[in-house]
Amino acid sequence: MFVDGSLIAQYFYLGVFLLIAASLIAGYVDAIAGGAGLILVPACMLVGMPPQLALGQEKLVSTIGTIAAIKNFIKAKSIIYQILPIGIVSALVGAFIGARAILLFPSEVIEYIIFLFLPIGLLATLFKGKLVGNAQMGEVKKSAITVFVTCLLVGFYDGFFGPGTGSLFIIALFLINRLSLLQASATSKIFNFSSNIGAFVAFAMAGQMALLIGIPMILANLLGNHLGSMHAIKSDGVIIKKVLMITVGLMMATLAYRFLVA
Questions:
Q1: Percent residues over pLDDT 70 in the chain
Q2: Least packed by Cβ within 10 Å: which of 58, 103, 132, 164?
């Protein structure tokens, strides 16, 4: 079910350190603005993981890591529970379908899909930063159809690619359902957790996860999510968007060099 063995030796030294550091930063950023995959997927590919394994590893780490952020948001009473049931189901189903779809592509095609989709995920994350104001604009919209369609589509994107999903959930909940940014960020963690589970199952069934490497990555991601969610509750996290832009920009440049020159 899980990929291990020779991979452990290959990634053990500098590779594992990079993955642990990337997991910590990804958890911190994801808890505030979404976008863990923008950091984790390129990091996994930079240490030599095949694209399918990079996508599956991101799901392994993010699915468990986001639990720390969810716990803090629940304690802060920032989650809108009325829209959770239908959103959870549709996000999970959409992500499972998306993950099964991406696994149909050969490795070399997935590499280019990841490289082309990264800017979309990055733009979604950065655009979220343009949404200002924490006060709700009118009554929260709880339409079952709106929630179902939104979570199904974003969930499919999460399973098919992933990076930027948290930001897309935040944007949708803020603009369509009229949640405040804090409520949108908090509630999106539940939906993102559900879509992660759907994709997690699909990638695990395909054997595209490295469990032993994932253990320290998960611990670092849990810590990052805890710190990031506490920051999100107390501030708007403006500095995170700048850090995210710089970090992902450097990783995209490195991947571009690898694809076009190496």
A1: 73
A2: 132
